[in-house]
Amino acid sequence: MQRELIRLDHVAKKFGALLVLDEIDLTIHENEFITLLGPSGCGKTTMLRIIGGFETPDEGRVLFEGNDITDLPPNRRAVNTVFQKYSLFSHMNVAENIAFGPKLQNKSADYIKDKVKYALKLVNLDGYEHHDVTKLSGGQQQRIAIARAIVNEPRVLLLDEPLSALDMKLRRAMRQELVRIKQEVGITFVFVTHDQEEALSMSDTVVVMNQGYIQQIGTPEQVYNEPENAFVADFIGDSNIIDGVMVRDKLVRILGIEYPCVDTGFGEECPVDVQIRPEDIVLDNPSEGALNGTVTKVVFKGMNYDITVTAGGFDWLVQSIVGREPGEQVSVHLDPYNIQIMNKPAYDDERAAQVK
């Protein structure tokens, strides 16, 4: 069983009249790679800054191994932060940037030299000690920022969208590097991003946020395959989200047609949201399915086609390795195991309600 390292206990934060975090409860475990994921303005960076000691919550506590550190300054926490802007010192070379923290701690010259060498090897930049940081690439600067944080031997590394300035190919390479570094140093990573692919590909745990609330906490597989609500389903990847009625256990009505499903416990004749992922839809010949429609748009995406099918008054997004032609008649086939039933919000703002 993973050991609790950090706990946010009913943490709330306002900036003026704007409520940024509302009674957040979150447990972060030792050695975990946990990602705070959500759209801009959802509160994820504020939560990271509260963990790091750069912001103080208006309500609630921050606990580290059971000890209250809510009012502890950043330099007294076993935490280091890598910001979106790496904030490297332009007047220092690579080694001097990495050695900055240990020098402040009055470490010996031999200790600092060994630590710098270890950190550069860890981030695959051996031999870069005397390089000018302003002449490094974005990916190299990011790795120097991580090395500078790691030499301080933090228990937790906080990363605030550190890949956002990189191009897509480099971002994907750096994701693998971050996972490797985390595994080698054996510390807890708390990563902030609005990029769903980053969150799903790197994390042990994903915390989906919106409007200052936690929407869902789970593994990447759980938040993708079993979203708690329509916000999570829509934010994590592509989705078809449709109004439905749960006729009874294991039977749902979608666009006037009853489909078997595997979900239970929603009641009878109960309005629900229905999610079907585009890759889970199979297109058949018109005579082979209950829901017939017309292909209205086809976009080639390299690995697959994005196909829009208008059927039952709804525009279905279908992802397939087999292309279709606009105007082609098809039927939409839904497998019971790929129909995800979710509670429908009782009021307009309920999508932002925290999942307890």
Structural summary, described in words:
- The C terminus is likely disordered.
- By secondary structure, this protein is α+β, with helices and mostly antiparallel strands.
- The two termini are 22 Å apart.
- A six-stranded mixed sheet has the order 6-7-8-3-9-10, with helices on both faces.
- The protein folds into two domains: 222 residues, Rossmann fold; 114 residues, OB fold (Dihydrolipoamide Acetyltransferase, E2P).
- The chain is elongated.
- Strand 9 and strand 10 form a beta hairpin.
- Helices cover 24% and strands 35% of the residues.
Please supply descriptive tags for the structure shown above.
5-stranded antiparallel β-sheet, OB fold (Dihydrolipoamide Acetyltransferase, E2P), 6-stranded mixed β-sheet, 24% helix, 2 domains, alpha+beta, elongated, 356 residues, Rossmann fold, 8 helices
Q: What is the class of the largest domain in the CATH system?
A: Alpha Beta
The total of beta strands comes to 20
CATH topology of the largest domain: Rossmann fold
Overall average residue pLDDT:
91
What is shown here, in short?
With 356 residues, the protein is α+β, with helices and mostly antiparallel strands. 24% of the residues lie in helices and 35% in strands.
Topology summary:
Blueprint: E1 4-15, E2 18-29, E3 33-37, H1 44-52, E4 59-64, E5 67-68, E6 79-82, H2 94-104, H3 109-122, H4 138-150, E7 156-160, H5 168-185, E8 188-193, H6 196-202, E9 205-210, E10 213-218, H7 220-225, H8 230-235, E11 240-248, E12 251-254, E13 257-260, E14 270-276, E15 281-284, E16 291-300, E17 305-311, E18 314-320, E19 329-334, E20 340-343
Parallel strand pairs: 3-8, 3-9, 6-7, 7-8
Antiparallel strand pairs: 1-2, 1-4, 4-5, 9-10, 11-12, 11-14, 12-13, 14-20, 15-19, 16-17, 16-19, 17-18
